[in-house]
Amino acid sequence: MNLPLLEKLKKWQSDRARRDNVEAYRVLPYLTLEEIARREPKSAEELLEIKGIKEKKLARYGKEIISIVSGDLSLTTARGIGGQGNLLQNNTDDQVAVRDEDKIFEVGEYLDFLNTKLLEAEAKIKGEVSSVENRGNYIFFGIKDKEDESLLNCFIWGNDYEISGVGLEEGMEVIIWGYPNVYKPSGRMSFQTKLIEVVGEGALKKAYDELKNKLENEGLFAPERKKPIPDFSHKIGLITSHQGAAIGDFTSNLGSYGFQIKFYPSRVEGKQAVFDLVKALKWFNKNMPELDVIVLVRGGGSFESLQAFNTESLVREIASSKIPVLAGVGHEKDISLAALAADKMVSTPTGAAVKLTKSWDEAASKVDAAERELISYLSEIFERFDQAKIKLHREFEKIGQAVFYGREKINNISKNVSAIFGRCILEIKETIRNIESQLNLNNPERQLKLGYSLASFKGKIIRSIKDVRIGDNLDIKVSDGELKSKIFKVRPWTKTTYPKGKL
User: Fold this and answer.
1) Shortest CA distance to 11 belongs to which of 85, 113, 87, 119?
2) What angle do CA 281, 285, 291 make, to 5 degrees?
3) What DSSP character marks residue 434?
4) CATH number of the domain enclosing 273
5) Where residue 86 falls among pLDDT bands split at 50, 70, 90?
6) Of 139, 166, 199, which residue constitutes the final position of a domain?
7) In this structure, what DSSP letter does residue 91 have?
8) In sequence order, what E strands does 135-278 have?
9) What sign results for the dihedral spanned by CA atoms 463, 469, 474, 478?
10) Where is pLDDT greater, at 293 or 57?
């Protein structure tokens, strides 16, 4: 059963009864409120399935009830639960019942009235278990006073019994929490029990050890079952009390890494806190599956104050969570079963924050180191660049000087080459003139003009009488033409016959 929801429904019932000027049981019987808290209906169809709600009740209270169940209190009253306005509809005369002290009740009507009044007798009671009758979905048991043997008949629903995590045995001393209630079909009054605790640290330790062995044998604490807490977790679901120091210890040690924290306030003190803790885990898994991790923390305390963290229902809820669970429950002597079932456990809320911050701190440290290394590396590169620039500047200066001197040398060479080339031209011209003169002197045509002639036979110059024979036809070239002649006689020269002056 969702006890926080039941408390809200009881408050709404009381406020609504006051506004309508009727007894609270006339709004809705308490058993109907319990069934709503147990089934948590989200629609009109689901509401109609609950005993005690018909069409008329649905039309009048349906929207308010659904808004309370869904957590949207804006539809209940103008000022939320406890306010004075009704936003659903105006009350008509036939809807408002005026209280009449002389009214005669029907039996069922009176029992509803009585049960509503008995809610004010909610209490914690200590006694010794005198009898136990387990019927599966519910358990009847009795507790008695060890001093005067006073007896109280009790009833607890199976799921509440499971959440309590106590195996009732005759002779066991327990503390029960609940309220008296008259069961209408039988008229039998019993103590409607919501939670059972064992009394004494010895009994608590025994129950702790027995449950630990049971769950350990099932493998709920096995390392291979645990999910890793992701590095760089960013989206965090936080479950703790909004009043204790744990929330401050956790958030103040997280570091400034942009964490997104979704906070679900829960009781963390006493065994009754198990209802809030289980509901919180269920809510995160159902409504925020994108979370990286669920963090469950509370500060230190006595073994008795940590009973909620040693209940079977909470351990199983942690073990079945699809989102990794990080537990930081401050009690190192006896590690809570919830911490053993968690995917990762630390000893304090501060330790939980340090665990989640560690990967971010390491990454930031690596980034800082890389930044320093990069700056050092770049500084070295820039220094080398400056040195290279200076060296290059010097080399350019040398090259400039070399170019300047080279240009001067080229200019000088150019001048020398021009002079030499000029002299060569003059010498060539002089040589050409000499050659031309020699050619002119040796030109056959010049010789012809001087009276000489050239005789040839078959294109060959006749240089000797041996080159021809009598009868050969000769070509004789003179300065102004050619003569054809024929040899009739050949006479060699002798000293006596050679022309004068030719020898």
Assistant:
1) 119
2) 105
3) H
4) 3.40.50.2300
5) very low
6) 199
7) P
8) 138-144, 151-157, 173-183, 188-198, 235-240, 260-265
9) positive
10) 293
Same domain, 144 and 238: no
Distance, CA of 443 to CA of 115 (rounded, Å): 161
Burial group, residue 116, by CB count within 10 angstroms (0-12, 13-18, 19+): buried
- Give the model's pLDDT for residue 87: 31
User: CA end-to-end span of the chain, whole Å?
Assistant: 163
Q: Is 329 in the same domain as 395?
A: yes
Structure tokens belonging to residue 132:
């136990």
Burial class (CB within 10 angstroms; exposed 0-12, middle 13-18, buried 19+) of 350: buried
| Beta bridge partner(s), residue 442 | none
Task: Report the C-alpha dihedral over residues 266, 269, 270, 272, rounded to 10 degrees.
Answer: -10
Same domain, yes or no, for 25 and 64? yes
Q: How confident is the model at residue 221 (pLDDT cuts 50, 70, 90)?
A: very high
Would you give the distance in Å from CA 309 to the centre of its chain?
A: 31
Number of domains in the chain: 4
Whether 116 is in a domain gets the answer: no
The domain of 503 spans: 448-503
Residues 262 and 408 in one domain: yes
**126 pLDDT more than 90:** yes
Distance between CA atoms of residues 10 and 13, nearest Å: 5
What's the pLDDT at 501? 53
| pLDDT at 178 (0 to 100) | 92
Q: Please give the full DSSP string across 107-145, using - where no structure is assigned.
A: HHHHHHHHHHHHGGG-EEEEEEEEEEEE-SSEEEEEEE-
Summary mean pLDDT of the chain: 84
> Alpha-carbon distance 140 to 190, whole Å?
9
Q: Which of 365, 380, 364, 318 is nearest to 343 (CA)?
A: 318
333 contacts: CB under 8 Å, gap ≥ 6: 303
CA distances from 84 to 19, 59, 110 (A): 7, 20, 27
What single string gives the DSSP state of each residue in 274-323?
A: HHHHHHHHHHHHHH-TT-SEEEEEE----TGGGGGGG-HHHHHHHHH-SS
